[in-house]
Write a structure and sequence with these properties.
By secondary structure, the chain is α/β, with parallel strands linked by helices. Helices cover about 30% and strands about 20% of the residues. β6 (about 105-110) and β7 form a beta hairpin. The radius of gyration is 25 Å and the shape is elongated.
Amino acid sequence: MDVTLLGTGAPAGLPRPDCPCAACTAAQGENARAATALLVDGALLLDLTPGAAFAAARAGHSLAGVRLALLSHPHDGPAVEVPAGLPQPGRVPDGRELALLTGHRVRAVALDAPGTGYAVTGPDGQRLLYLPPGGAPAGLEESAESYDMVLADVVGRPDALARLRAVGAAGPTTDVVAVHLDHGVPPGRELARRLAAAGARAVPDGTTLAVGAYEDVPDVPRRTLVLGGARSGKSVEAERRLEAFPDVLYVATGGSRSGDTEWAARVHAHRERRPGAWRTAETCDLVPLLKDDGPALLVDCLSLWLTDAMDSVGAWDDAEWAGGGERALGDRVRELTEAVRATRRTVVAVSNEVGSGIVPATASGRRYRDELGRLNAAFAAECEQVLLVVAGQALVLRG
């Protein structure tokens, strides 16, 4: 079964008409995208968009053989003209299955937002799932087998992919292709980087894909360290990397700090930003978590873990530091990095990068700065990917 992507953009296309933003300005050439529409084996059209007939012709296809045209979501604006000879497009009630004379079967999938998803099975048994913009499957049950291909709004609704993975509908061999791409993410390398972190990819308009064919999508790094300064966006970047995972344990190393209203506001903001399905553990005891099997870990952050570790070894007292505290801290850091090296879990850790700022005025401040630099370097050495976030922009240092 072949799928030709006549368009891969949001309903308004990319660039959006009359939008002066940086992403739209950069959306030129193969980064420009028409509204998403799919042509399956020349017989099935999923979403009719303006210029679909010309897009098909540019891709070397024709709409003359289309036997069924389906819409997946409400279309704003004037009605789209139906090319001559094309069946009148419509929507299928949730759960209903249609059979085409070509041997394709199409089942309507219920969503948690206005619209309809379509699961298509080809004559030879290949299976694809197409989801509309802003939609995620609702009421999923455990799947006997995973789809060969999923085409979805990975950027806008990463939790849709997480839901599919949770029930086995999207597995390690599923080719996940991002569609409905909008101006929320700069096109090109930044888009590819974000999608790769979710185990997905994007392709230019007009691309024809063979459903079930192996695609060499970059593996999701198992261990990632995200560095950055204060309010740099490092926590947002770390959280974004795990939004498409079906199960995540958020490890908060800062505690609740009873009575500190500013800290409580920070904690609340972090919780509001995280997916509701994530679980939270407030602890600095990271080694047992790394040694155990389980869901992905998001550790936020190592700098607060270090504060706790330095407190426990008396690092702020010069006599205790010289009398064994420094050695004890080194042992704690070594135990942590060895656990990171041996872990089987997916881990994303956040840490502050403080060595490039003002030299602390106190000896204890300089000691903390130095030890955090050593911890970051040791932790980074055990990670497949290391990122530095500056002004909300992620720079890949490794991986």
